Structure to design on (104 residues):
């Protein structure tokens, strides 16, 4: 009888310990995946990119504001001062409520 109680208690303790080890391992795997994803997605400098894009605009403040919104959502700004939207499809496809292109 004493052996079976000792065996039962040992088994329960082993199962609890195994559960804790598995929990720690799962937390480590999850935190590694999150940190790898954070480093693989590099944000661009929207302020600098939009300043370059809007430097020849007749309404630079309006252009910078719209460009900044588009850049924040898409994380890209096409090169040059106009056109070249094929390099950033998200930026090119964004429209206003009136179905006009939002991004300069």
């Amino acid at each position: 009888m004493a052996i079976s109680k000792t065996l039962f208690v040992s088994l329960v303790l082993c199962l609890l310990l195994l559960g804790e080890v598995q929990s720690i391992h799962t937390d480590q795997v999850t935190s590694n995946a999150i940190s790898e994803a954070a480093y693989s997605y590099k944000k661009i400098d929207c302020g600098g990119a939009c300043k370059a894009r809007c430097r020849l605009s007749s309404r630079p403040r309006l252009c910078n504001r719209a460009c900044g919104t588009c850049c924040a959502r898409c994380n890209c700004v096409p090169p040059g001062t106009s056109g070249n939207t094929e390099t950033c499809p998200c930026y090119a496809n964004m429209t206003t409520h009136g179905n006009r292109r939002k991004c300069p």
